[in-house]
Specification:
single chain, alpha+beta, 9-stranded antiparallel sheet, 8-stranded antiparallel barrel, 40 strands, about 30% helix, about 35% strand, globular
């Protein structure tokens, strides 16, 4: 077994590999850029080597710098994680030339299957059903439009070396094909150093289901069942689960056997994933093979008990797989929510900055018999950089059934505290409560169909609202008692804590009466129904763990005048608890309106202006491209919402802007 391995990656996946290496007694070497000098993976590793400036194309994907780090530290093997150099055949070949073991497949297998164009041709030759498309290289935008016209819209424009949603666009017409080709090509060059593009038919209403395979150097290959990855936004996976709620045993077996046959055909070893598109009749079509560890691998580990990173290391060291196909049973259900530094209230645009608060839920077994796991590469006080993926953490839960896994995820998300940046915790929390998701009736179009106007927060059902109102009333009583104990008050003046209140939230008023005892409070509504609330919450705590009628309720709590800001299940509520007279007067207060910014194009995220597409004095039409902003390796094209005339342009290409900085003004 290896004594020392180098991890050619960063963030949560580098931390994940380090954890398994520690368990196996293997020393680790981290590499880091200027932006990651204080990163968690650097702190966790036994050694760390600086490899250059923040941009990945000057550090993490420069092969010579990784090879220099290997020479400096004497690492015997390299784990590439995912992204960066993980699917670069020339990197694996360079390691082989050095006599250093690549913890992944052999370079010919990477060349054969890592390249999406080549892998599709091989799949077709093997008789695997594939999605219609053009597998050759595309020279320019004109050719891209011509090919798209021939295939028939909509089409998917994809980077050959792509992954993680980078360099990928859907085009519904010729104009979008031209625009998408150019943006995909630019993103692919910046992210992967490879700007080759291919085009295929976009299959509407599909499910994205992938098979995890594991092969050793002794001819053994197994599949560790499937992962359902259909909850995607802009082709980026957001929520994954294992197994899929859609597959039956026969389809699962057929997909698994086909995945293994494909892996064996190219001499594949190590962990890999074969991705399929599955239609409503359970017909499946080969999409691509990822010749690396997948981001969502933890859900497979939770239902099989197999540490995939450990098996990758053991396979690389020449050991045979310790199990056979019949040993790999499905145990329970697992969910994964990807926590991204993206603001769901701004159409999921990237957010950067310092994590002023980062408190994940406690990992391990829960009181309800489930499991919580959190894979992360950040810490409280650390920064989310504009140079890399916006991943903060991968929150995973396990339960004996799908319903139990979802409920564990709901509570874990409610418990997860993140402040200082925009993040998608409210959104994934809302999805966990969405009836269509709960039913398992999902496709890759789920987010686009269910949130066509973007995410503006969740609306809680009436039962949950009343539970929150009862909880807020009980918490307010605790806060009122605290306020009566303030020192320095007037002599002969005693503040009495009332038992009749009006709780206002989500546009509703609830008149309640509180009867408290040593164990908790009974909150009775005007209609006569009551809720029993218990908690050890004290004023100032940002997380309130309560039980309402014996069921757990976790609230993120902030202070507002005469009440609380409460967040749970994707809802962000201002909850006011007032005396009846104060509630009566509050209805007479005028509502403060937000400022009018309709005549300005504001930068929706921290980023770099790549292109200004109009000039001062120019008339623009609805939907016309105005500017391109790059953030976190993604190009974002800002378009006109309506017809107008450009009065003033305040930013130029190359400018670095903050959120809401003015790009241009209209007449």
């Amino acid at each position: 077994m290896f004594k020392k391995i180098l991890i050619a990656n960063r963030g949560e996946i580098a931390c994940r590999v380090i954890k398994t290496a520690r368990k196996m007694g293997i020393k680790t070497v981290a590499v880091y850029s200027d932006a990651d000098r204080n990163a968690l993976h650097v702190k966790m590793a036994d050694e760390a080597v600086h490899i250059g400036p923040p941009p990945a194309n000057q550090s993490y994907i420069v092969i010579d710098k990784i090879l220099d780090a290997i020479r400096q530290t004497g690492a015997e093997a390299v784990h590439p994680g995912y992204g960066f150099l993980s699917e670069r055949m020339d990197f694996a070949a360079a390691l082989e030339d050095m006599g250093v073991v690549f913890i992944g497949p052999p370079s010919p297998a990477i060349e054969a299957m890592g390249d999406k164009i080549t892998s599709k041709k091989l799949a077709q030759q093997a008789g695997v059903s594939t999605v219609p498309g053009y597998m050759g290289l595309i020279a320019d935008a004109d050719e891209a439009v011509k090919i798209s016209d021939q295939i028939g819209y909509p089409v998917m424009i994809k980077a050959s070396a792509g992954g993680g949603g980078k360099g990928m666009r859907i085009a519904w017409n010729a104009a979008e094909a031209r625009e998408g080709f150019e943006s995909s090509k630019n993103e692919a060059a910046a992210s992967f150093g490879d700007d080759r593009i291919f085009i295929e038919k976009f299959v509407t209403q599909p499910r994205h289901i992938e098979i995890q395979v594991l092969a050793d150097k002794h001819g053994n290959c197994v599949y560790l069942h499937e992962r359902e990855c259909s909850i995607q936004r802009r082709n980026q996976k957001v929520i994954e689960e294992a197994p899929s709620p859609f597959l039956d045993e026969a389809t699962r077996k057929a997909m698994g056997e086909q995945a293994c046959a494909l892996a064996k055909a190219v001499g594949y070893t190590s962990a890999g994933t074969v991705e399929f598109i599955v239609d409503g009749s359970r017909n499946f079509y080969f999409l691509e093979m990822n010749t690396r560890l997948q981001v969502e691998h933890p859900v497979t580990e939770l239902i099989t008990g197999v540490d995939l990173v450990e098996q990758m290391i053991r396979v690389a060291a020449g050991e045979p797989l310790p199990f056979k196909q019949e040993d790999l049973k499905i145990n329970g259900w697992a969910m994964e929510s990807r926590l991204y530094a993206e603001d769901p209230y701004r159409n999921f645009l990237p957010s950067i900055g310092r994590l002023t608060r980062y408190r994940p839920p406690v990992e391990g077994k829960t009181d309800r018999g489930g499991i919580v796991r959190n894979d992360t590469g950040v810490y409280e006080g650390g920064e989310i950089s504009m140079y890399y993926d916006p991943m903060i953490a991968k929150l995973c839960t396990w339960g004996a059934t799908r319903g139990e896994a979802i409920e564990e995820m709901r509570l874990a998300l409610d418990t997860f505290e993140v402040e200082g940046i925009g993040h998608n915790l409210p959104f994934v929390g809302a999805v966990m409560d969405h009836p269509r998701f709960v039913s398992g009736n999902i496709t890759t179009a789920f987010i686009a169909e269910e949130y066509p106007e973007g995410f503006q927060g969740a609306t809680l059902d009436g039962v949950t609202l009343r539970k929150v109102a009862a909880a807020a009333a009980a918490m307010n009583r605790v806060a009122e008692i605290r306020r009566t104990r303030i020192t320095g008050t007037m002599d002969n003046h005693q503040r009495r804590v009332g038992d009749v209140w009006v709780v206002s939230l989500a546009g509703q008023d609830f008149a309640v009466q509180i009867a408290a005892d040593r164990d908790g409070s009974t909150v009775t509504f005007a209609e006569g129904d009551s809720h029993r609330v218990t908690s050890d919450w004290t004023p100032g705590q940002s997380l309130a763990r309560l039980t309402v009628d014996g069921q757990p309720l976790v609230l993120k709590v902030g202070k507002v005048p005469m009440g609380f800001r409460i967040r749970l299940r994707g809802a962000d509520l201002k909850v006011h608890v007032r005396s009846p007279r104060a509630a009566e007067l509050a209805k007479l207060m005028p509502e403060k309106l937000p400022p009018d910014t309709s005549k300005y194009l504001l930068c929706p995220m921290p980023g770099l202006i790549v292109k200004i597409s109009v000039e001062e004095g120019q008339e623009v039409q609805e939907g016309q491209a105005l500017a391109t902003v790059e953030a976190m390796k993604m190009e974002n094209i800002l378009k006109a919402e309506r017809k107008g005339v450009v009065r003033k342009i305040s930013a130029a290409p190359g400018a670095s802007l903050k959120v809401d900085d003015v790009i241009m003004e209209f007449e």
